[in-house]
Amino acid sequence: MIEIIHQGTMTCIVDSGRYGHAAVGVPPSAALDAFAYGALNRLLDQDGNAPALEVMGAQFSIKFHQGMICAITGARVRASLDDRPLNPWTSFWARAGSVLQVEEVTEGFRYYLGFAGKLALKRVIGCFTTNLECGFGGYHGRSLSGGDRIDIDGIYSIPLGVVPDNAIPRMKSPHALRITAGPEYHYFPESSQKTFADRKSRIVYTVSENINRTGIRLEGQQLDFLDEVDKSIISEGILPGTVQIPGDGLPIIMLYERTIGGYARIARVARADLDRLAHVKPGDYVLFERIEMDAAESLWDDRQRSLASLTHTIRRVS
């Protein structure tokens, strides 16, 4: 059993996502950093859909009521187990009665904690992940709070492992996001298109305080619409990473909690860069760069090869 002492800014149960149900309005609600989540599964020798904790912010703490092997990936953190320093992107042994504390997030925004055992949770529509807006999945359909306890079954032992530093993605601001043109890209004059994503003339956006698992609002120079187009559309489907431009001309990057939207879709973040969105936090800087679809597909192939190679890259230490 694990017990949440302090939930940090927010902690919820996630897995690889609830896909295939967008037609009835059910979003993926997946782990926002799929690479870090995949690395966690490899460190713990788990399948690709094991539930884990996605934590945002420092001051997170948890008590172990059973001995077990755990791992932390995602944002780089300053953490300790019973006051002994822990390294991120590594697995470790926690004894019954041990307390894990995260004092500081030093790079990135969200981090992932997994366990060599099965969290005793029920699947909802085939997944463990939490749909916070609709209130189902995960732990009673909500984020975790101090005092919450979750049983862990089938605890097992594996060699401890470390992901080498050169295999850990960069998570610092500024965040350079490569994008492909969206369905309403033509709603904007060439001057706005260049302001948005041309390497020579693009502007730098600042991340606002208004961010959550649904989306990221940006602040900066407003984009102009063509005079002959409407500033909203009939609601249509959106994918994670869709960049919408509402009437105020400022971008919103959609994440994993929506299936439709009613604003012009100027672009979509390349799938290979979606993980980076987990680490965009208030005050950070964001730049966009337009690329073509074949380049985006090549980037995704490279990213998939990097994840697959982690199995051989992880250094086992015991």
- Based on CA atoms alone, the radius of gyration comes out at 20 Å
The coarse overall form would be: globular
Q: Residue ranges: pLDDT <50 for 5 or more in a row? A: none
Mean pLDDT over the full residue set:
95
Order of helices and strands: EEHEEEEEEEEEEEHEEEEEEEHE
| Strand-pairing-aware structural class | mainly beta
Characterize the largest beta sheet: strand count, sense, and whether it forms a barrel.
9 strands, antiparallel
- Count of separate structural domains: 2
Portion of residues in beta strands equals 35-45%
Helix content: 10-25%
Distance between the termini: 24 Å
Number of strands: 21
The number of helices is 3
Would you summarize the structure shown here?
The protein is mostly beta strands.
What does this protein structure show overall?
The protein is mostly beta strands and 318 residues long. The protein is built from three helices and 21 strands. The model has no long low-confidence stretch (mean pLDDT 95). 12% of the residues lie in helices and 37% in strands. The protein has two domains: 2-163, no CATH class; 175-306, Cyclophilin-like (Cyclophilin). The strands form four sheets. Strands 1, 2, 3, 4, 5, 6, 7, 8 and 10 form a nine-stranded antiparallel beta sheet that branches. The protein has a seven-stranded mixed beta barrel with strand order 13-19-17-18-15-14-20. A two-stranded antiparallel sheet has the order 9-11. The radius of gyration is 20 Å and the shape is globular. The protein has helices spanning 34-43, 190-197, 293-313, and strands at 2-7, 10-14, 52-56, 60-64, 68-81, 84-86, 90-94, 99-115, 118-119, 149-150, 152-153, 161-162, 175-181, 205-211, 215-219, 232-237, 242-245, 252-254, 260-269, 285-290, 315-316.
